[in-house]
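Hi again,

Forgot to attach this to my earlier email, sorry! This is the prediction with zinc ion bound. I've pasted everything inline since the attachment limit keeps bouncing my files.
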Amino acid sequence: MCRDVTTVQQWNIAQMVKYLGSHQLCVLFAEVYGLLPKSRLCAIHKTQMALHKRHQVGYFKCSRGNCRTKSLISRAAGTWFEGVKISFPHVFYLMYCFAHRFTREGIYRENYVSVEKKLSSATITDWYSYCREAVVIFQLDHQEFKGEIGGPGKVVQIDESKFGKRKYNKGNNNNLYIYNAIMFIQILFFFSGRRVEGHWVLGMIEDGSEDLRLEVCPENVRSAEVLIPLIRKHVHEGTTIRTDFWRAYECLPEYGYNHEKVNHSDPGNPFVAEDGTHTQRIESHWRVVKRLFYKDNYNNPANFADVIVEFLWRREIQKKHTDPFIALLGVIKYVRLT
Ligand SMILES: [Zn+2]
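Structure tokens for the complex follow:
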């Protein structure tokens, strides 16, 4: 089984059943993937402890000196599986569901794990939260190395969008879009656990690149004091920055940027400036980001910023054509063993 399982490039339900359908298979798999340790050093003797493969996942025991009388250490201690209250096949199944963004209905429909007890709504919510939390830690640790976008001679489009509220009402009569926007507001309402005015998110993208940068505006303010530091964090000096007429951007030249303004409020041509410059790329990215939110089944109050970070992670694995389940396994391994 072990050799097969490491060569799987794309996981589907059939493979989940085949390789992760029983407790024993799950434990073996966790070992192969480095989610469960195969060995452990005694903190006192600095020697290998013996691994006893009894109980759920086995335990470690040192047989030297006084250690003999000491309690056993579960192999799950400090791992993703510490203190789990559901079966191992269910743990992996819920990870698979999160990776593929199953809705609650989907989770119940596809559930192949035969157990007496049905997964409760709270359990699903908990495990989705654990997965999201791990993804956020992983993603934040990995995005710092990306550096700045833009540079002299390059164009970066910048726009703020209010999540939970349509920014541009004119020039768009797409009913489906309006319906989705309403859905989206309701979901935001749900996961914030309070009345939502909307969250300002700053988006930045360089022309000719897919490297979208997103920042949630602290305190939900989009003043120059908030926006400029976020822009300087991501966008190289000397870049030509294209924005709408929002006054917070007026001071961009003071920070070494060339500034071009585009009038979104022209209903006939909302994305084209007087000099013919376009901003529809950043607009189309907003549509992709927003699609993520209303597709998800958020019954659980989550941090909005976390959802943005999760989006960035999903976007990156999609770009690299990484299997979502394999990507999540990597995340869990990184978060729990580093
Ligand atoms: Zn010892």
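Confidence is low (pLDDT under 50) at residues 164-196, 267-274, 294-302. The CA atoms of residues 244 and 262 lie 5 Å apart.

That should be everything now.

G.
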